[in-house]
């Protein structure tokens, strides 16, 4: 393990926040202005975050007894708090998206006692705890890698989009950087084997983009306004060649090095910049805090 314990030695903050979707002006159908593909990608990600993040929380709780270090205990509590608020705000956005004509989002929107929720929990219980937690650690690294791109790229920040949707994305990305190594450290504290950690990321490395691409295609199929073949081809080309995905696979491969730790990638300066930008004295989202 090398650099930047400073970023994680402090406990991440749990911010109680409330976004004002559709205020003062109603949201436009395409949150990313005129971009069908990016809008459906954002909607799909927003749809899967709440059930995904709840599963991350359960995976960490399975190893609560292995966490004896008081600092890590506090970081775990903050991780759970942050992911809970993410789920809560994404659920609110998802309801808006369903109302606005994104029916695919509904597929991932279900209550705690629903059949789908019970099925997910049953599958989790059948899977070994290490695999479940390694999945969380890999997903957290994947998310943090994307978050670093979203927050670090002027080109991405300059894409015209719904203002409140962008705020949500930046806030979520920033908190993902704040807690990026918590699940990983729980995995280490629990004695999780390196081969499972690396193997799970190898699977995520191969399957995530094809699965997400299929999801975006299905989502667009449910949206007749988006059936514009030439625009879709041009926008798909932009997504795959643009700043979000360009070089992503090379970045993700770093995680598969034995002995790797997420803090080996130093995101402290970027994080401090955005903490100021959003929640400093003049921060753009201070008025959103409850
Ligand atoms: Fe999150
Ligand atoms: Fe996270």
UniProtKB/TrEMBL annotation:
<keyword id="KW-0472">Membrane</keyword>
<dbReference type="Pfam" id="PF10118">
    <property type="entry name" value="Metal_hydrol"/>
</dbReference>
<protein>
    <submittedName>
        <fullName>Metal-dependent hydrolase</fullName>
        <ecNumber>3.-.-.-</ecNumber>
    </submittedName>
</protein>
<dbReference type="InterPro" id="IPR016516">
    <property type="entry name" value="UCP07580"/>
</dbReference>
<dbReference type="GO" id="GO:0016787">
    <property type="term" value="F:hydrolase activity"/>
</dbReference>
<keyword id="KW-0378">Hydrolase</keyword>
<feature type="transmembrane region" description="Helical">
    <location>
        <begin position="195"/>
        <end position="221"/>
    </location>
</feature>
<keyword id="KW-0812">Transmembrane</keyword>
<keyword id="KW-1133">Transmembrane helix</keyword>
């Amino acid at each position: 393990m090398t650099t930047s314990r400073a970023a994680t030695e402090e406990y991440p903050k749990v911010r109680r926040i409330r976004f004002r979707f559709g205020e003062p002006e109603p949201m436009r159908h395409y949150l990313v202005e005129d971009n069908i593909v990016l809008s459906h990608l954002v909607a799909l990600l927003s749809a899967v975050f709440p059930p995904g993040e709840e599963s991350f929380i359960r995976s960490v709780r399975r190893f609560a007894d292995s966490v004896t270090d008081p600092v890590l205990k506090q970081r775990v509590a903050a991780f759970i708090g942050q992911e809970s608020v993410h789920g809560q705000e994404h659920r609110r956005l998802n309801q808006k998206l369903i109302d606005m004509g994104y029916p695919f989002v509904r597929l991932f929107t279900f209550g705690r006692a629903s059949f789908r929720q019970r099925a997910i929990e049953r599958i989790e219980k059948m899977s070994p705890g290490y695999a479940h937690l390694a999945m969380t650690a890999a997903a957290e690294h994947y998310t943090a890698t994307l978050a670093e791109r979203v927050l670090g790229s002027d080109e991405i920040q300059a894409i015209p989009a719904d203002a409140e949707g962008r705020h949500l994305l930046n806030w979520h990305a920033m908190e993902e950087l704040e807690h990026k190594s918590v699940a990983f450290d729980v995995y280490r504290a629990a004695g999780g084997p390196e081969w499972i950690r690396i193997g799970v990321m190898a699977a995520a490395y191969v399957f995530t983009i094809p699965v997400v691409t299929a999801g975006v295609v299905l989502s667009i199929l449910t949206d007749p306004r988006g059936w514009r073949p030439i625009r879709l081809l041009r926008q798909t080309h932009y997504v795959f060649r643009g700043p979000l995905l360009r070089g992503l696979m090379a970045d993700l491969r770093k995680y598969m090095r034995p002995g790797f730790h997420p803090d080996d990638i130093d995101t402290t300066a970027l994080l401090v910049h955005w903490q100021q930008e959003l929640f400093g004295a003049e921060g753009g989202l201070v008025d959103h805090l409850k």
